[in-house]
Amino acid sequence: MSVKLAFEAIGDGPPVVILHGLFGAGRNWAPIARALADTYRLYMPDARNHGASPWAETMSYPEMAHDVLALIDRERLQRPVVIGHSMGGKTAMALALEHPHAIAGIAVIDIAPESYADQFSPYVAAMRGLDVAAATSRREIRQTLASHLGGDAPVDFLMQNLQRQDERFDWRLNLMATAVCMRDLCGFPQQLLRRHYPGPSLFIAGEHSDYVRAESREGIVRLFPRARLQHIADAGHWVHADEPQALLNALREWLGDTVAQPATSATN
Q1: In terms of domains, do 91 and 200 share one?
Q2: Taking the CA of residue 140 as centre, how many other CA atoms within 13 Å lie in the half-sphere pointing to its CB?
Q3: Domain limits at 133?
Q4: CA distances from 121 to 24, 29, 64, 94, 152 (A)
């Protein structure tokens, strides 16, 4: 069953939906969306269990893809282009493979249709282990989280999930569901590996990221035969934070080509 995703929308023109990654929110993509808003109508939803969207016990990629499909239907979007980063990229791939007629193309940022080692459970465990309700300041929570995770952890990024309500701090992230579903989040649905999406697709990888490797190309092209692969120099996994202008240039060029193309017959 789908959940009704919270979202923000800006701009005017053909619809583009941007899907954020794990621990993120739609607002993380506001700078990119603002830059594209002169040409497109940008929709930035919060995934289930993230941001202002409802919580659910499960969060498989087919379920999250169905959440996005429900948003497309509810807002009456005419075959939007879907951009997704990391977890959002896998959601975009699942949407394309299961509902190809609903979209005009996908742009997937620094993720491939494959399984990855779980490096995120320690983040969830550390966040769950903090008694944030008893904390007196964001600084106190940040320092404690940083001491638990070490200097290389994206503490500031994780702290974006902290909110204050009724004089108490709490997380805007469903940590329990994230912990339970981590295996699904790190993997990719096996049943989708037998499908393909014949529409236009762009796969962007950060030069210094190991999420999209040379050997990932075969799996990408098998599922997305029209895939265009591109690397962004000097960028890691968070391409939109590391090299926003280079990412924006790549997206703008591809969107211009994709939106101008006639509708393609999509079959599985």
Answers
A1: yes
A2: 9
A3: 121-180
A4: 15, 24, 20, 23, 15
Angle at 177 between CA 95 and CA 130, to 5 degrees: 135
pLDDT reported for residue 263: 45
Q: For residue 108, give the 3-state DSSP assignment.
A: strand
Pick out the chain residues at pLDDT < 70.
Answer: 260-268
- pLDDT at residue 265 in the model: 41
Say which residue the tokens 């599922």 belong to.
Answer: 223
Residue type (1 letter), 159: M
- What pLDDT score does 259 carry? 87
- Please state, in angstroms and rounded to a whole number, the distance separating the CA atoms of residues 141 and 145: 6
> Is residue 126 included in any domain, yes or no?
yes
- Residue 218's pLDDT is 96
Distance of alpha carbon 225 from alpha carbon 119, whole angstroms? 30
User: CB count, 10 Å around CB of 111?
Assistant: 28
Dihedrals phi, psi of 206, to nearest 5 degrees: -75, 135
Overall size of the chain counted in residues: 268
Which pTM does this prediction carry? 0.94
Query: How many domains is the chain partitioned into structurally?
Result: 2
Shortest CA distance to 61 belongs to which of 109, 18, 118, 113? 113
* CATH number of the CATH domain containing 36: 3.40.50.1820
